[in-house]
Write a structure and sequence with these properties.
mainly alpha, 8 helices, 0% strand, DoxX family membrane protein, transmembrane helix, transmembrane, membrane
Length: 182
């Protein structure tokens, strides 16, 4: 029994020492594999027409981000103010830039904090603005069901991002290269 405990302790001590490499690298890989394209596709739906579409979000952007304000404005985004434009623009850019920063590992802790804030706002908008109160969509923790889109899945997304916030981007990152050059 002592040999088994010694083997157990040796194996998991080694794994603990490797966690600084394994966890952040795996977290960034998981984010890239599961969420990168999701957020980029979402951002692409918010771009306006033509070259200057990156400066002037589409009506769809306003509907996604400000559903109640757009409904009140008769779905005419020109009726909304500068605040709405600035938030829609920042949200669109955030969906492109923050995931890219996380994947390449540049300013990854700050980008991960930004994505956590983005996910929290996205969830609040889904629940409050879009009325996502259906129990299957909203879900509930500790209910034995793992498939709800908001509470279950987004908690997992945030947990992956928290690993990066706590541990950094890991050794295979621009952050690490820049740290060695500094």
């Amino acid at each position: 029994m002592t040999k088994l405990a010694t083997l157990h302790n040796a194996l998991f001590d080694w794994l603990d020492r490797q966690s600084g490499f394994i966890l952040p690298t795996l977290a960034r890989f998981t984010f890239a594999a599961v969420l990168l394209v999701y957020f980029w596709k979402s951002a692409a739906t918010k771009l306006g027409d033509g070259f200057f579409g990156i400066l002037f979000p589409s009506d769809g952007a306003y509907v996604q981000i400000f559903p109640r304000a757009m409904e009140a404005a008769g779905y005419d985004s020109s009726q909304l103010g500068v605040f709405h434009w600035a938030v829609a623009l920042a949200g669109t850019w955030a969906e492109f830039i923050l995931p890219a920063l996380i994947v390449i590992g540049l300013l990854s802790r700050l980008a991960s904090i930004g994505m956590i804030g983005f996910i929290l706002m996205q969830s609040a908008t889904d629940v409050i603005g879009h009325g996502a109160s259906d129990p299957q969509t909203l879900g509930a923790w500790f209910d034995g069901l793992s498939g709800s889109l908001i509470l279950d899945q987004r908690l997992l997304w945030i947990t992956v991002l928290l690993i990066i916030v706590v541990k950094g981007a890991g050794p295979l990152s621009v952050d690490r290269i820049m740290g060695r050059l500094a």
